[in-house]
Amino acid sequence: MEIEKMIKAAKGEEIADIVIKNANIINVLSGDIHRGDVAVVNGKIIGIGNDYKGKEEIDINGSYLSPSFLDGHVHLESAMISPYEYAKAVIPSGTTTVIADPHEISNVLGLQGISFMREATRTLPLDVYMMLPSCVPATDMETSGSKLSASDLSIFIKKSWVLGIGEMMNFPGVLNNDPTVINKITLPVSKRVDGHAPGLSGKNLCAYISTGISSDHECISVEEAREKIRMGLYIMIREGTVAKDLDSLLPVVDANNSRRCFFVTDDRYPHDLYDHINSMVRRAVKYGIHPLTAIQMASINTAEYFKIQNLGAIAPGYQADMLVFDNLSDFKPAMVFKKGQLVAKNGKFLPKENGYTLPETRGSVNVKWIEKDNFKIKANSDKIKVINVTGNKLITLGSIEKTNIVDGFAETDIENDVLKIAIIERHKATGNIGLGFVKGLGLKSGAIASTVAHDSHNMVIIGTNDDDMYYAAVELVKSQGGKIVVENGKTLEKLPLPVAGLISDLPIEEVIEKLKSLVKSTKQLGCKLDDAFMNMAFLSLPVIPDLKITDKGLIDVNKFEITNLFV
Question: Of the residues 274, 291, 313, which one is the last residue of a structural domain?
């Protein structure tokens, strides 16, 4: 039996499978560093000592041996690449386990989205656990591809790869005792419920936490994080591609509360995957946090919060997920071990692909037949409410602008940077099209479009003229999703995203180049933003102030209601 072999090898009566020799072991359980050999059998650590023998012995000559890293909250589909390509990018940097919330793909495909993510990650050299998405849809002011109830989620809640319920964004629903929300957060038994409560404080925070919600990744200040720690929450310190909170939250971490903090990425684009959780450890140490504390925050803290047994430490009985570091400053692994197997060396991913294929999914770009006239906006006034993009921030502002009226229709005003925006419902072919205006992109010609648009991921199009907007929409229907830049009826660049309109089937290297080319093409059209597609992806998110737009119309987020475009 397997356990008999492990006991005998631990006692030195049998030879281990693998022995890492002469290691300076970073012990996140005792909080010290000690010299020894680490013996592994069947992917588990069975002994730490000085005289173990192995079928394979790897002498690391005094280098540091650390538990590998966990990402405590991530939406894999936000990277726009297959889970295999994701694993290929993050494993060499030392991340060997992620806790994924398939919120984005579930808003498109519902339960099939969860099943897709499970099948797509099941055989990877990366452990992928999941938190079931709690807010599908996020609001009733947009049309999503699906609606998941507590009953739907109950199908998966007892699975070993499911660790609980994902970020509960609908904190008003919690505070108002909405039964559909309460049924979800009371669904898991002895599993976690993650929070999402930006700015929540005082008695409302107490009420939110009293339901059993136990974490938050939306803190942006020391004061907010400190209050939430005092009230019992674990703090997920986030550093994504868009939302970057690491620098502002590191000052909250001290010797007394560090075990209540851990690292997450939330949403990252492909180019930000190669330097992953290890970059957060590196920056934490550079800030002044002790290396052992930073490594705890990247490993055992995360595993213990999610109640993942025997993961996140180097000790007998723990899974042999380990990293070899030459020093405790740059945190670039010389070797990465997954279940005792060497999976990366000096930044190179080693496992063979072995015919990895993405599971099949249904088509997700289901648009009612559209015509150029669908983009026309009949003018009801000489003044309009305009969404103002504010640099690289997700928050938008609203302004009142004079309408550019041509033949009775409100049109773009390129000179004043007022462009037309359309949100086309793409899940159920309802024919819903939300039309409005946006300022701050700087486009002088052409149009850009995407099927990545949080949270319901309808098709979003911004343009200087109706012809190019129509052309962009049709092209994305043909490719079943993607991102595109067009001018004068021609495609300047396009990244197809055929899986749920969110994920490419191309290698990560090609996706990165396509994304760079898309940005370059927007610059050719006069765009003044660093990445217009990144901003555009959040213009339809009706939970971030002030003014947003969905397929149902213009949204006044502060009043949480649909508002009239014309004043």
Answer: 313
Write the DSSP symbol of residue 272: G
Phi, psi of 370 (to 5 degrees): -115, 150
**Rounded distance between C-alpha atoms, residue 464 and residue 387, angstroms:** 15
How far apart, in whole angstroms, are the C-alpha atoms of residue 265 and residue 121?
18
Asked if residue 525 has pLDDT above 80, the reply is: yes
What Rg value do the Cα atoms of the chain yield, rounded?
25
Domain holding 217, by residue range, is 67-313
Residue entry with tokens 């107490």: 206
Domain annotation covers residue 43: no
Number of folded domains that form the chain: 2
Q: Which of 567, 68, 550, 17 is nearest to 334 (CA)?
A: 68
- DSSP of 366-388: ------GGGG--B-SSSEEEEEE
Give the tokens for residue 262. 């851990």
499 close to 361: Cβ distance less than 8 angstroms: yes
What's the rounded Cα separation, in Å, for the pair 477 and 377? 22
Domain C-terminal end among 264, 289, 313 = 313
Helix (H) or strand (E) holding 282: helix 277-287
For residue range 539-567, list pLDDT tens digits in order: 999 888 899 999 999 999 888 899 999 99
pTM: 0.95
Domain-located, residue 322: no
* DSSP 8-state secondary structure symbol assigned to residue 258: G
Q: Would 547 be classed as within a structural domain?
A: yes
Tell me how far apart the alpha carbons of residues 356 and 126 are, in angstroms, rounded to a whole number.
14
Is residue 318 included in any domain, yes or no?
A: no
